[in-house]
Every structure is written in C-alpha cells, then in structure tokens.
UniProtKB/TrEMBL annotation:
It comes from the Bacteria. Residues 459-513 are annotated as: Disordered. The lineage of its organism: Bacteria, Pseudomonadati, Pseudomonadota, Alphaproteobacteria, Rhodospirillales. This is Transposase. One of its GO terms (molecular function) is DNA binding. It comes from Caenispirillum salinarum AK4. Residues 469-483 have a biased composition (Basic and acidic residues). InterPro entries: Cas12f1-like_TNB. Keywords: DNA-binding.
Length: 513
C-alpha cells in the first residue's frame, strides 16, 4: 500500500536552489516526451541521450520516464472515461426517443407536434454525442495530447505564468538500494534535515544566488517536518525502503514536498461476515447502516458530505471527517465496510431520478476523493473493505425495506449494499403489508431482471404489482374464495393464468402508455 505525506519547505533559499534544478528537469522531461511518445524512439537510447544533453543522472532520467508514463496513462484513462460517458448519454437519450415515439402514436395532433419537436432535438443531441465520441476515439488512437503547464493559462494569454508553472515541478524516484532510499534527495526524519544533491551547473547557479552549497554540490534544508507521517517515514528509514519525492511550486511561490513510501499490509482486524457497515453516498450526506451477521440493521446514521461548489480545503476536511467516522464505527462493531463500486458518471446518472438539479450538486472531486480516502484508511487500520455492484439498490431498498423498517430510501439503499456484501439474497418480496407479485412458474432467471422491471415502472410513474392477500377464511382482497394449495398439491397453471413475469411486463406497458 502506497502512502504520501506532504509538507512545505520553509527556507529562504528554496527558490534559489530548487528553481534552476526544476527548470533543467522540465526541459529534459519535455524533450523525453517528444522523443518517446511522439517519435517513438527506444527508451534506452533516449535515456542515454538525455543524460548527455541535460547533465542528468540515470536515476533522474528514469524519474522523468516514470513521470511521463503516469501522465500518459492518466490522459488515456480520461479519454476512455469520456468516451464511456458519451456512450451512456447516447443510450439514455435513445431510450428517451423511443418513449417519445410511443407517446406520439396515440397523442392528439397538438401534443404530437410538441413531442415531434422534442424527439427531433433529442436526435440532434445523439448526433452531437456520436460526433464527439468519434473525435475522442480518433484522438485516443493517436499520440498523447499533453500540455505541460495546462491549457487554461495559454487560453488566457498568460504565457509567462504558463512557462513558470510548467517548470515548477520535478520528481525524484527512490529505491531501496540507494542511500536513505533516494539517490538525489536524502531525508533524515529524526532531525528534519533534507539534503539535495545538485549538478555542477545548478550548484554554481545556487551559489551565485547566495545559497549555502558545499563543494560537493549538496545543499541542506533544515526543519523540514511532516505534520502527518513523520513516524511512518522514520519506520521507512529503518526498514531501508525507497522514498519518492515530488517537489512543486504553488501560486504563492512556496515549494511543497511530497514523500511517497510503500507500507506493508496491515492484518485484518474486522470481518464482514460478523457485521457490515453499508454506506450509500448521496449529494449532501452519507447514509450509513450497520447490519449484524444475519443481515438485520442494528444502527443507522447520516453523515454530512460536501456538495459541488464547496471550497477544496473545506470539502477535503469534511470527507476526511466522514471517512474517519465510518471507520471508527466499523472498528467499534468489528465490522467490515461495504461501499458501492460505481464511477462518477453512472452515479450522477442514477441520481437524476431525484431530479437534474439534485444530481448536479454531486461533486466529482468529493466522489473520487471519498473512494481514495476510505480505501486508504481501511487499509491502514485493517478494516475489511468490500465494493459491491450497486445495481437497483435504491429500488430494492425503497420497495422492500423503506416502509417495513421505517427508514428513508437512502438508508434502505445502504442496507441493501450491506446485505449484498454479506451475500444475502434479494428475493422479490417486501416487508410491507403487501407482497410483490411473484412468478407463476419456476424459471432460472436472475432476480435483477425482475427488479429492473420494477425500476422501469417506478420511473414511468406506474405502480408495482402486488399479490392479493389471503385472509384466514381463504378469501382474497377482492372477496373471491380460492382453495389453498397443499404442500404436495400444486394448482396447474392454465392458459388464462399469466406468470408473474408477464404481469410485471403488462404493468410496465400500461405505465408507459
């Protein structure tokens, strides 16, 4: 498990020492990107030429390669994610077009004209999505389109600020075979001393600026203390593992330091089979439900969560507090944690059932940061973390548990997530005063296919079909008397008795009309 800790280098000589070093590393990184990812030259030849051209060590050239590989991988992942989102939008819009066309068939002339215009606009939207997806696919097949320093400053015409930003960072990859875990930068966590090894040219530039550089080209930064992770770095130094450092300059021209180490896996202290903390992430809050070993809820809670537009620092603090509260609850019950395995685009599409304005309030930063932070904290504290498919959790929770358990639909969805992580079934029954219409025949079908029909009925404004209740005298709710079926005798299904599956399909068709 990788962990990263950050601090600020509070030294008056930081700019004079780190700025020339970062500029040289940036020039080498940009040249290596062109040679490797645009021209397609072999890595070994590019690495040797970069060492001679820019005066780099082998480890520094390897660090640039690693940094570029990470950037290209992130860019390709972003493009694939955009293509997937466009494909999902096309599928949703095409389904909306099909519903509009069905409404047009039996609509009066005035309404038909309005529906026809809406259908036309939806088709135009599908065409735009298709063209954009084709352009993204063509871009993905070509060389990576990276802009070091970002495109925002270039669009604004701030060329000097853009150049300053693209030359304001460098990465130093560590290894366990090197002194203090890194060849270029050595950090002593016991006295807070950071020693940086400079090239001859950078050392002369730093001396000219008045920086205290010794004759071997080394500069020492004192009082470099990490607010969080100081003891972890000390343990890493004792184990002799590699430490990777990232230096970057912020808008206030302060130099930040990020130290990344690999920590051993912590043994599991909780078991999801004993108890489970189910978490359903919503726009303004986390719905949390604790279940016992039998899948019954024993505690529920609502934890605040940041919405879109919240300040970055405030949002990160709120997410950290929420993750800490959930993990402390899991440790108290010795329970595992179950969360939904869903990306941001699909989660936002699912929240549109509560309204588009409601879905827009979900923050992409908060959603992704929550997944990262809960995985990191569970790994550090030995909490069993399980990610489940959240298909139809809101539908199942709302139909089966919301009324019978007297809980909100969000807590009911969290209950379904917890039970699904424990491996419990999701039979087509509910806890209310009525039972859902079950199938009249035994057919090996997945239960989610039937819950999908319920979801379609709910989205179309229909009602879920219920099986009639039978009183003690054998009469159903409509007053008819029917014989009870014995344990060894089953009533044969005639041609006029439709199965529960067909009942659901008929109800869906009626709801759509």
């Amino acid at each position: 498990m990788m962990r990263t800790f950050g601090t600020i280098i509070r030294s008056e000589q930081a700019e004079a020492v780190l700025a020339p070093f970062a500029a040289r590393m940036a020039r080498a990184r940009h040249w290596q990107f062109r040679e490797l990812h645009i021209k397609g030259r072999p890595k070994l030849a590019v690495r040797k030429e970069a060492q001679q051209r820019f005066g780099l060590t082998k480890r520094q050239a390897l660090a640039n390669e690693f940094d570029l590989d990470q950037a290209v991988t992130a860019w390709r992942g972003m493009m694939r994610n955009r293509i997937d989102r466009l494909r999902d939008r096309m599928e949703q819009t095409e389904g909306h077009i099909a519903r509009l066309e069905r409404k047009m068939a039996g609509a009066p002339p005035a309404l038909r004209a309005s529906l026809k215009m809406r259908c036309h606009q939806k088709k135009r939207h599908v065409g735009r999505c298709r063209d954009t997806m084709a352009a993204c696919q063509k871009t993905l097949e070509g060389p990576p389109a990276l802009c070091f320093g970002g495109r925002d400053l270039l669009r604004q015409g701030a060329v000097e600020a853009w150049r300053d930003k693209r030359q304001g960072r460098f990465l130093l990859v560590g290894s366990k075979d090197e002194t203090a875990g890194n060849q270029t930068a050595q950090y002593d966590p016991y006295n807070g001393r950071l020693v940086l090894r400079l090239s001859d040219a950078d050392a002369e530039t730093a001396r000219a600026a008045g920086a205290p550089v010794d004759r071997r080209g080394r500069v020492v930064f004192e009082n470099v203390v990490f607010r969080y992770g100081q003891q972890d770095l000390a343990n890493a130094a004792e184990r002799g593992i590699g430490i990777t450092f990232l230096f970057f300059r912020d808008d206030r021209r302060r130099w930040h330091l990020r130290a990344t180490i690999e920590q051993p896996e912590v043994p599991k202290l909780t078991d999801i089979r004993i108890a489970t903390v189910g978490v359903d992430l919503n726009v303004e809050h986390l719905a949390v439900v604790v279940t016992d070993r039998y899948g019954n809820p024993v505690e529920r809670a609502t934890v605040p969560f940041p919405v879109a537009g919240t300040d970055g620092g405030t949002a990160q603090a709120m997410i950290g507090d929420a993750v800490k509260w959930v993990c402390d609850l899991a440790l108290r019950y010795e329970a595992g944690v179950a969360v939904e395995d869903l990306d941001f685009g699909r989660k936002k599409a699912a929240l549109k059932t509560y309204g588009r304005k409601h879905a827009r309030r979900l923050s992409s930063f908060a959603y992704s940061k929550f997944g990262e932070m809960i995985a990191s904290r569970c790994g550090r504290h030995g909490i069993d973390l399980t990610r489940v498919n959240p298909a139809f959790t809101s539908v199942i929770g709302g139909v089966k548990y919301a009324t019978g358990r007297a809980m909100s639909r969000h807590h009911a969805a969290a209950l379904v997530i917890a039970r699904r992580a424990q491996g419990f079934e999701e039979r087509f029954v509910c806890m209310g005063d009525k039972a859902l219409g079950g199938p009249g025949r035994s057919q090996p079908r997945h239960l989610w296919s039937r819950w999908r029909n319920v979801h379609l009925m709910a989205s179309a404004g229909g009602t879920v079909p219920h099986a009639p209740r039978r009183s003690d005298d054998g009469a159903t709710e409509d007053g008819r008397l029917e014989p009870r079926a014995g344990p060894a005798r089953r009533r044969r299904r005639t041609a006029t008795t439709a199965s529960g599956h067909h009942q659901v399909r008929a109800a869906v068709a009626r709801a759509r009309v």
